[in-house]
């Protein structure tokens, strides 16, 4: 059944290992997907190809892209702009290709607002998952460490609530396996396939 | 993260192969689940064990069970009543066990009304999936055959709209693989896990 591709948004708190999990998906060929090429005002490094590694643009061009609504999300990092162009993502999705965005939580929130049909996956730190155990077996951590972790945990859980799936990054292999299952399941979700079935019988 | 088990409801049009797919899940040990034991007024056959194969009860007891709301759904077949008792299903789910119900579409509809948190999987006949192709390449089927299949297809798509997932039963192995992925994905869906995370930080 031909249908639109999935926009897969992989996010989570900083340091949770988003990049490592994405690399493992690529290396193990867990499932096929297309890359979204980012736009940046950073200068190309030796060997980087415009349109492949990044769309390299001037600050003026980047600001124009922002103003014209050409970017799903953007941010500034070490003096340079980075953003995700909307048009190529929409094109790949309409061709039935899945697109994977690995992105920070602020970026994911902006993507959610514009593309609510995306599949939003929150990578969860394993120590959040194990927090209960750690709290029960106090003594290994100081009270200050525990209180700080609790505060952070409440923050992480609040972030998680905006996502569709919470995948614990206990091992990269487990995380990849869950993400693979999510992709397979979403591809057979009724909300994603029923329109193409309906179209099929209406066209007669 | 301990959480409630999943109620998996496997249904679909008659003849689609629900029983075969369920047997394949059992035989390949695709994922662990508990059986729901049905209640029936049918007489036990040699070797059948009360409480294991069925709960064998009198017609009066069955009618009492209906009136007391003890059954999630029930129907009559060749003069006997068959029904799904609610209490054991609820108990298994609260113990974190997944429960699989293989059930006809009318039964599934009743389960949906009472247990909307269930995972409702619609097995789709492969010829529905291939209908478009068949319509394009008319000539192999008569116009009457095509019109009947179209009418049936519209009915099947209408049924499908009440479900969470539509799994094409093209091969039993493919169907089982998709159902396995659905189970894995649902177990990490935020709506199912976030309460236990929240409870964890609130309890401190």
- N- to C-terminal separation of chain A? 16 Å
Largest interface, with counts of residues having CB < 8 Å to the other chain, equals: A-B, 37 and 38 residues
Cα-atom radius of gyration of chain A: 19 Å
Please describe the biggest sheet of chain A, giving its number of strands, its sense, and whether it closes into a barrel: 5 strands, parallel
Q: Using the alpha-carbon principal axes, give the shape of chain A.
A: globular
Proportion of strand residues of chain A: 15-25%
User: What is the count of helical runs of chain A?
Assistant: 9
Strand order of the largest sheet of chain A: 2-7-1-8-9
Structural class of chain A: alpha/beta
* CATH class category name of the largest domain in chain A: Alpha Beta
Which segments of chain A are poorly predicted (pLDDT under 50) over 5 or more consecutive residues?
none
Number of domain units of chain A:
2
Order of helices and strands of chain A: EHEEEHEEHEHEHHHEHH
CATH topology of the largest domain in chain A: Rossmann fold
Can you give the helix content of chain A as a percent range?
40-55%
Give the name of the CATH superfamily of the largest domain in chain A: P-loop containing nucleotide triphosphate hydrolases
Mean pLDDT reading of chain A: 90
Q: What oligomeric assembly is this protein in?
A: homodimer
Domain Guanylate kinase-like (chains A, B): 5-184
Organism (chains A, B): Lactobacillus jensenii
EC number (chains A, B): 2.7.4.8
GO molecular function (chains A, B): ATP binding; GMP kinase activity
């Amino acid at each position: 059944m031909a249908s639109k591709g999935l926009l897969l948004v992989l996010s989570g708190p900083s340091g949770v290992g988003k990049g490592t999990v994405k690399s493992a998906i690529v290396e193990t060929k867990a499932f096929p997907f297309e890359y979204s090429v980012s736009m940046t005002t950073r200068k190309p490094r030796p060997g980087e190809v415009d349109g492949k590694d990044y769309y390299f643009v001037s600050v003026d061009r980047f600001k124009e892209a922002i103003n014209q609504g050409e970017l799903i999300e953007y941010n500034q990092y070490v003096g340079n702009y980075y953003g995700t162009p909307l048009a190529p993502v929409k094109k790949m999705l309409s061709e039935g290709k899945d697109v994977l965005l690995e992105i920070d939580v602020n970026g994911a929130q902006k993507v959610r607002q514009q593309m609510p049909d995306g599949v939003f996956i929150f990578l969860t730190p394993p120590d959040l998952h194990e927090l209960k155990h750690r709290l029960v077996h106090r003594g290994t951590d100081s009270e200050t460490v525990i209180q700080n972790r609790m505060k952070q945990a409440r923050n992480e859980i609040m972030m998680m609530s905006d996502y569709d799936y919470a995948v614990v990054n206990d091992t990269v292999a487990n995380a990849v396996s869950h993400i693979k299952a999510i992709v397979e399941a979403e591809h057979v979700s009724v909300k994603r396939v029923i329109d193409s079935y309906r179209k099929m019988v209406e066209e007669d």
